[in-house]
Each structure stands twice: as structure tokens, then as C-alpha cells.
Amino acid sequence: MPTAQAQLMNGTDLARTLIDDTARRAAALTRDQHVVPTLATVLVGDDPASVTYVRMKQKRCERAGLRSEHVALPASTSTAQLVDALGVLSADPGIHGILLQHPVGDHIDERAAFDAIAPEKDVDGVTSQSFAAMALGGNGFASCTPGGIIRLLDHYAVDPAGMHAVVVGRSPILGRPVGMLLLGRNATVTYCHSHTRNLGSIVSAADLLVAAVGKPNFIVGEDIKPGAVVIDAGYNAGNIGDVEFSSARTRASLITPVPGGVGPMTIATLLAQTIDAAEPQTTAGE
Questions:
Q1: Domains of the chain by range and CATH?
Q2: Is 242 helix (H, G, I), strand (E, B) or coil?
Q3: How far apart are CA 14 and CA 155, in angstroms?
Q4: Is residue 171 a known part of a binding site?
Q5: pLDDT of 41-71, one tens digit each?
Q6: Is 253 annotated as a binding-site member?
Q7: What are the residue boundaries of the Tetrahydrofolate dehydrogenase/cyclohydrolase catalytic domain, all occurrences included (predicted)?
Q8: What is the rounded CA–CA span in Å between residue 76 and residue 190?
């Protein structure tokens, strides 16, 4: 008798739908207000992976009818210089969203850099104000990967209310904010990290698991509760996630593949939030 397989949560198709809607909104803004929504990307240094990510985001902008403006800064850029550059972009009425590609280098105070972005242009959801909004339910943008995860859950009719959600990872742009968003949806949230003891037993109690630790195949299927929803937000060399997919799929009810799950939703959410930022900025300028 064949083993049951979890349903795949297809982020690629959902992202395409979201980008199509974003393109429609961008066209309407350009037609009605004569404004082209613009995303500024800022890159410090020339790390090959970061260069590739930025170039990919620029291409997606073009396909969706958004303009992208790129600011390339040398690896020697100081915190003060980066903060100044972000301040200039924040004050520019022609820029509607700002993305600071991270990491920015160990010599830079990343938090100071993030918080130099005007909150109304923080379409990547990285400022302290945006995190406060995710935690407290105020106005602000969600971090793009957590925001994409919530969109995926909604699309597949997964209501976190009452679920025990376990988040493995506590980064300020993924683990921590996704836990806050799930808490806002009335889930009971447990955070796990490198100092967590008996991780397997905690994971096995999760109705909803978000793996965001950045270690390939870190979570194995035998630790997953039968019927759990598994969100693999990891992406490691060789297109490998943080969850051992083959074994997890025989235990979960829903699971995101890597690639094709969370990743496409991250960029789609970034573009959608750029339009979300552009619309009120354009109205305010009338």
C-alpha cells in the first residue's frame, strides 16, 4: 500500500497570480496618476549571491511594470555613509520603496542602516517600526518572507488560530517576525534556536512548523507530527531546504517544496508592498 503524500503548497503559481495583480495595479497608477512605482535597491560590495539576488529583483520589477533604481556602494562603505545614502533615498519623492540587500558586511551596524529607511518606504519590512507593527498589529510592512508565508497559509485555507506553531530560527527578518504574525493570527507560538534543548520533541508537537534555521535537512520527517503543516523557509546549496523533504512529505498534510514554495512568494510580496507604498505616497502628493 503506497504511503500517503502531503499536498504541495505551490508558491510559484500563487506568486505569479500576485505579480499579475501587482502589474495591474502598477499600470493603473501609471495611467491615472502618471507615476511609475519605483523600488530602489541598495547593495554594499559585490558579493556574487547578493548581486544575483538584486539583479533578479530588478528583472521582476520590470516585468511587473515597476521601475527599479540601483545604488551600488563599495565594500568599504561605512555605517554613516550607508545611513546617509538611505536617507537621501528616503527623502526622494520619486522613490516609493527601498530594499537594502543584506548582509551588508560585518563592519556595518545593520540595525542602524535598516532604521535609516523611512518606514513608509520600508517595503522589505526590516525597520524596527515595521517589526513593532508585526508584533503589535499597527501600520507597517511585513518582512517579505514572513508576509509571503502568511499569504501561502491563507491561500491554502490554513487558519493558525488555536494551532501550536513552532518556529525554528530567530533571525530579525524571518524567524522572529513570522512568529509575531502567527501570534497575531491566534496561534500559540514556540520559538526554537541553536540553544534549544530537546528540539525534536518540541518539533513533534507542532501543528504548524516553520523551518528557518539555514541548515540543510536539519529537521527530519520522524520528528514531524502526523498531519502537520510544514513551511520550509530554508534555502541551501543544491536547492535543499531546512527540512528533509522526502521523509517529511510522508508525515505532513501540507508542505512547501524547495524550490518553488516560500522563495517565489518573497519577491512577489516585495513587489506587492512596493505598490502598497506607492499608492498613498502618490495620493499624499496630490
A1: 34-118 (3.40.50.10860), 144-264 (3.40.50.720)
A2: coil
A3: 8
A4: yes
A5: 999 999 888 999 899 999 999 999 999 999 9
A6: no
A7: 9-124
A8: 39
